[in-house]
Specification:
It is built from 16 helices and 20 strands. The protein is α/β, with parallel strands linked by helices. It folds into 3 domains: 12-185, Rossmann fold (3-Layer(aba) Sandwich); 191-412, P-loop containing nucleotide triphosphate hydrolases (Rossmann fold, 3-Layer(aba) Sandwich); 416-479, no CATH class. The strands form 4 sheets. The chain has a 9-stranded mixed β-sheet with strand order 12-13-11-14-15-8-20-19-18, sandwiched between helices. Strands 3-4-2-5-6-1-7 form a 7-stranded parallel β-sheet. The protein has a two-stranded antiparallel ribbon with strand order 9-10. Helix 2 (57-70) crosses helix 3, helix 13 (414-435) packs antiparallel against helix 14 (440-448) and helix 15 (454-464) crosses helix 16 (468-479). It is elongated. Mean pLDDT is 83; it is low at 1-21, 384-414 and 481-489.
Length: 489
């Protein structure tokens, strides 16, 4: 393809912001677009735009693309997942009022269409289309050789990378790919302005232990991490926390790998909570059906592996349950960001962290200093109260940002609370039995239906006058019907 796009105009006066009724831009979105245009006007063609998850990057991309389309200039938008590709296609068709071409394996090509949305995997094997504007969605993935080759092929075009987290796993940046970075707001500001939902983070003090786990490509070695965690025990912790804090709420679970995700989903289902599993190998039609059931509420808990981190736009997610330890700030913010979108009737998002990611990588709304050279993560001093399990974050001064507001993170001893809850239920059942002159074994039978912990069963055995071995036998009997690692629901 030709690298000389003579119809590209670099002066800002010819790159005005569209304000037509079909695209309603918030103030910070307009300001961010204006910053991009100012960079382009200075001859900096490769711009990386940072906007927090849920800040509305798609509508910004659509507004910029429409400016180019109105001048009949070709546009190429690149994404790396099917969900993102079709979301972007729909947004661009709505904004520009025209049919958009899709370059993707299995989809009929329409090369005559001025706007194309392409799969990066497919694009590397096809002839590159002409483009005055190239948009790279989720451009934190742009370090791969395929992205580099594509960017280098459009040396005379406007390049716009978009991401919530302009950093690699090791914290380094993208100064080797882009000329400038634009960033205008942060998660805390968007929460205060009502554009994102406030949150409550509950940390499991018995978090997944990552001590001794090796690293691969800057993050925990996935195989070592999975092998070090008992999936059945982990599933029990997750279901216990969900029952205590989020029962009935729409929840997304992030798991280490497929066997863990399947075990967690099966445990939820065994407890009578509709749950399903989703991963990159789930067939397309089945994936769509699972997401639709979750969207309508038929499925209450969606367990996944690396699927719901990017491009998954379901604002009414009320709970994010993190069971996937990571060193990646990008992955952490993508995971918790799934719960921060606003929705009717949703006042506070609940984040259940079973990993201590918040201690390693900061709170979901912690401000960061984003630069093309990488990101500076504020080193926070955390104080745990051993009696109340409250974790307090000291105010930390960060250059060029507002001071971090002191927050409280409630760290709950899940097992202790579960035991307290079960013992209260046990007492209630024995009271009912006594009131109705039922045998004590009736209360024990009803209690076993709750699939209680071993410690609770020991208390039950004592109430019944049974030997402690009864509790161990019943617990083993219950455990035999619970999911084991690798089982498929």
């Amino acid at each position: 393809m030709s690298k000389n796009h003579s119809n590209i105009k670099t002066h800002q006066s010819q790159l005005k912001i569209c304000k037509q009724a079909t695209i309603a831009l918030r103030g910070y979105q307009q300001s961010l677009i204006r910053l991009v245009y100012e960079k382009w006007d200075k001859g900096l063609l490769k711009i990386l735009m940072q906007l927090p998850t849920g800040g509305g990057k798609t509508i910004i991309l659509a507004a910029i693309a429409r400016n180019f389309y109105q001048r009949q200039e070709p546009i190429l938008v690149i994404a790396h997942t099917e969900e993102l590709i079709f979301q972007l296609r729909d947004a661009l068709e709505s904004a520009c009022g025209v049919m958009v071409g899709v370059i993707k394996a299995g989809v009929k090509a329409n090369p005559d269409r001025l706007i194309q949305v392409a799969s990066v995997q497919t694009l590397r094997n096809r002839e590159l289309p002409p483009a005055a504007l190239v948009i790279i969605d989720e451009s934190q993935h742009g370090v791969s050789p395929t992205y580099r080759q594509i960017i280098e092929s459009y040396q005379d075009s406007y390049i716009l990378g978009v991401t919530a987290t302009p950093c690699r796993t090791d914290g380094s940046g993208f100064d080797d790919l882009f000329n400038a970075l634009t960033s205008i707001t942060n998660t805390r500001e968007l929460i205060e302005q009502g554009h994102l939902c406030n949150y409550k983070l509950i940390a499991d003090p018995n978090a997944i232990n990552t001590k001794g786990i090796g690293s691969t490509a800057g993050d925990y070695n996935n195989r070592e991490l999975a092998d070090s965690v008992d999936a059945v025990e982990l599933a029990g912790n997750l279901i216990g926390a969900y029952k205590l804090h989020a029962i009935g709420k729409k929840c997304v679970v992030f798991a280490i790998n497929c066997s863990h995700s399947l075990a967690i989903a099966k445990r939820y289902a065994a407890e009578g909570i509709p749950a399903e599993h989703l991963d990159g190998e789930t067939p397309e039609e089945e994936r769509k059906a699972i997401i639709e059931r979750f969207r309508t509420g038929e499925t209450r808990v969606l367990c996944n592996v690396n699927i719901v981190t990017e491009g998954f736009n379901l604002p009414d997610i009320e709970v994010v349950q993190v069971a996937r330890p990571t060193k990646s700030l990008s992955l952490w913010l993508q995971m918790v960001g799934r719960g921060l979108r606003t929705a009717e009737g949703k006042d506070v998002a609940l984040i259940l962290d079973h990993t201590d990611n918040f201690a390693r990588l900061g709170m979901p709304d912690a401000p960061h200093i984003w630069t093309l050279e990488g990101v500076t993560i504020a080193k926070e001093r955390l104080k745990r109260n051993r009696r109340t399990h409250l974790v307090e974050r000291d105010e930390t001064e960060i250059i060029e940002t507002d001071a971090v507001v002191l927050q409280e993170v409630k760290a709950i001893d899940v097992e202790k609370l579960r035991l307290d809850h079960e013992l209260k239920e046990l007492d209630r059942l024995f009271e009912i039995a006594a009131h109705n002159q039922y045998r004590p074994s009736w209360a024990a039978f009803k209690f076993l239906e709750l699939k209680p912990s071993l410690n609770s069963l020991k208390v039950c055995a004592k109430k019944l006058g049974y030997k402690p071995s009864w509790a161990k036998y019943k617990f083993k009997e219950i455990s035999a019907n619970l999911p084991i690692e690798g089982e498929v629901a």
